# Entry
Amino acid sequence: MPYRRVFDVVWSGRRNLIMMASQIDRDGNQNISAIGDWAQPKAQLIGVRGAPGNTMNHSTSYWVPNHSTRSFVEHVDVVSGVGYARASAAGPSATKFHEIRFVLSNLGMFDFETPDRTMRLRSVHPGVTVDEIVEATGFELTIPSDVPETRLPTDEELTLIRDVLDPRGLRDREVKG
# Structure
């Protein structure tokens, strides 16, 4: 792609991003910058990076490999990725391309398909209960009356993941077994 076209793509809402989140809250704010008070954090992480611009200009999904009350928090310590309430407060230019599609953790899948655009439990992974997810979450989730179990991948999908996308098995290092 010619350099002159890079910003046409980067700021046009035409990409879908998947980012990790060290912390995420019920509004969809994401933190990858620091844990604790930003002036003197307990832990310095990778920094805000392009998360604010990415979340304002593209659909975004988050991956949280260790679902706990330390990662699913009432309020993130530093807002790196912008959630629904903040985007709405910033006005129409901030919401034009803003969309958080999914949050995926090692326990379940979540979305923001609620009237107030707060996090909702979409499905639980096989062997996980709704109660386990509620206990591991530091805020009140919207929980539908009938929460389905996440669909397991087909044999063909597993072959694609194992043999084509990740033949060295690096995914096994990321998720607690």
Summary: The two ends are 40 Å apart (CA to CA). The chain has one domain: 3-150.
